[in-house]
Each structure stands twice: as structure tokens, then as C-alpha cells.
Amino acid sequence: MKPLLCLASLFLLSLSLPAQIRARDLGVPFDGTTGRYNAITDVKGVEVGHTTLISGEGKLKVGEGPVRTGVTAVLPRGKASTDAAFGAWFTLNGNGEMTGTTWLDDSGFLDGPIMITNTHSVGVVRDAVIAWKVKNGKPDMEGYWWSLPVVAETWDGYLNDINGFHVKPEHVFHALDTAHSGAVEEGNVGGGTGMVCNEFKGGIGSSSRVLSAKDGGYTVGVLVQCNYGDRNELRIAGVPVGREITDGAFRKKDVGSIIIVVATDAPLIPTQLKRIAKKVSLGLGRDGSYSGDGSGDIFVAFSTANAGAGKPGAPRPMTMLPNDSLDPLFLATVQATEEAIINAMVAAKTMTGVDGHTVVALPHDQLRAVLKKYNRLVR
């Protein structure tokens, strides 16, 4: 059974369909000012691409399906650039994987895209990124043909034939080649296709914040692949939504993971970006996560400022914000993380996969009713 490569068809359909529903459209209140797209792509230069693989139904037949998976690409400076970006990462709970982080720690540079997929496809995605970079004909920033790609994962085996290894190199190429600026597709797309969040359907979500002029006017964007959480602990806008909407719950504890990518155009150096990555934890906590033992909660942050800082040769001029100016960026990171997760859940649709397992979508009407009950509905 061949998985369907459906991103292109989804894009064409999107031209004639209404825009996807997001949390703010339902009246969920969030603090802060968003960018134009309320997405990670509000940071100029950032591009996002997905390949979504959906095929088959019924009983699991390893290698045949059902298939509910994919891959997502985040390109810090877009496809056209080979310029590295200052970056850093942080792990809140390590029951997961993000490759390339040893060199990211030591060098302070993110050289290439950030990829997100399912747990058992990390290897093929990593290798395919190297092949894609070679195909595009340019060596790394120091002139060498070598690469240590950053590839992260969450587990989609409840809905997907994860041991069937359905993500192939051509799917990675497609996500990279079709990455774009502007609105980001959310929910059951890309690496988030088969994911579960707080026992509702999860997936990909994004959000952004723009600082005031007095704070520099910088932008912070966040993209999540959410696959974590206990229904009972879910909070939305401070409301215990998970305890109010119990239909479809099927787990007894926090199982899963979340990968979070933070982008900013603020001039930050790697030690400051490490601090940004740590602040993601607070946004995750606002939505009710306690980062359970079985969860891989891994975050990466980068800055698009200081172009050319990684080039070899003569010393490079650069700028950085003083540490006492970082508070607005910390707050923006927390706010955008909180909203990106809820955007993923709002966009996701009910999905049935392996062995008839069904994960229900967060019901929009019930969510509005619960928010109204707690006087938190804003429209």
C-alpha cells in the first residue's frame, strides 16, 4: 500500500476553502500582539513545509498501514540561503530525540533546516536532509561537505503503522522544496499527522508575538508538534477544559512528547537563545503539562539576526541585546507557546487509524461553552 502524498492537493483545495479555524476564532483569549499570520513565519525569512501521508484503514499490517504520518520542515533563512543562524536547544524531559544538538551546543550555530517527524523515521529524515543539501549543490558555511542535521520526533504509533517506515527520502525533499512563508498549515499535517495531545487529536500549531516599539519591535514565532498530555490536566486560557470535556479520553497518564521551535529576529547570541528555549517550558505549563516521565519535551530556538556571523575568515561584526532587555522576549515566547499548542488542537480533526483507534478532535462548541461558563469567552 503506497501512502498518499497529499500536501500539494491540500494546498490546491485550500485556495477554494475557508481559512482554517484557529483558537482566537473561537473566542479563546490570549495576551500579546500577534504578527500578520500569527505564526512562526512572521519572523522574516522563516519558511515551513509539510509532507502529509494518509492511507489505508482497519487492522494493522506492518509495512502496509494504516498510514497516518509525515514530516515537517522549518527553514530558518529559507531555501535560498546557506547562511547559518545562531541557535540553542533545551530539554525539559528527555524521553525523545533531537539529533545534531551536540554540535549546536558547542558551535552555537544552526546550519540547515529543523525537521520534525515520527520516532522511527528520524534516521531516514536525517540522511535525506544531507542528500537534499548535496543535491542543492552547496557545501556548509565553512566549505565542507558534511552535515549534522537537526531532526526531532514524537511518537504516532497509536494511529500510524510506525514500524512500517513509510516516510521516505522523497517525502523529506517535498517538505523542504515546498516550504514557504505566510500562513502555516496546522493540525493533521506533516509530522503532526498522527499525533495526540491531551487525549484529543494533536498535531502542528503555530503562533507569534510582536513586541512594542519601545521594546524593539522584534518578532517571536513558535511552531509546535504536540503529542503529549493527560486530558485531566488540560488548561485553556486558565480554564480546566480537560476536566469539563471528558468524552473520548482513553489514557491513564501523560504519554507522548512535544517538539517546540522558537524563531526570532532579535539579535541574540546562543547563550541568550538557550534562555529563550528554557522559557518555552512556562508556556507549556500554562496549558497544563507537567512534563511526565514518558514525555520527550525538547525545544530549539534560533535568531535570524547577525547574518554572516558563521562565515570563516576574518572576525565578523555582530550585535546583541543586553540581558536586561530580554524580559519582553521571554514573555512573548511564553505567550506564543501557549497559543501555538491550542491552535494545533483547534485545527486538528478527528482521526481513525491503526486497528480502528479513534482520537477525537477538541469539540469547538463544547470548548466555547466551557469558556463561557468560566467567563473567559471573548466573542
Which class best fits the helix and strand makeup? alpha+beta
What is the molecular shape?
globular
**What is the strand arrangement across the widest sheet?**
5-4-13-12-11-10
Q: Could you report the average pLDDT, rounded to the nearest whole number?
A: 93
Percent of residues in helices: 10-25%
Ends apart, CA distance between termini: 46 Å
Largest sheet: 6 strands, mixed
Element order: H for helix, E for strand: EHEEEHEEHEHEEEEHEHEHEEH
Count of structural domains? 1
CATH topology: L-amino peptidase D-ALA esterase/amidase
Weakly predicted, low-confidence segments: 4-18
Q: How would you describe the overall organization of this protein?
A:
The protein is an alpha+beta fold and 379 residues long. It has a single domain, classed as L-amino peptidase D-ALA esterase/amidase, CATH 3.60.70. The chain contains 8 helices and 15 strands. The protein has helices spanning 7-14, 101-107, 122-135, 169-177, 241-244, 270-286, 327-347, 364-373; strands at residues 4-5, 47-55, 67-75, 85-94, 109-110, 114-118, 150-154, 196-197, 200-201, 203-210, 219-227, 255-264, 294-303, 351-352, 358-359. The model is unreliable at 4-18 (pLDDT under 50).
Condensed summary:
With 379 residues, the chain is an alpha+beta fold. It has helices at 7-14, 101-107, 122-135, 169-177, 241-244, 270-286, 327-347, 364-373; strands at 4-5, 47-55, 67-75, 85-94, 109-110, 114-118, 150-154, 196-197, 200-201, 203-210, 219-227, 255-264, 294-303, 351-352, 358-359.
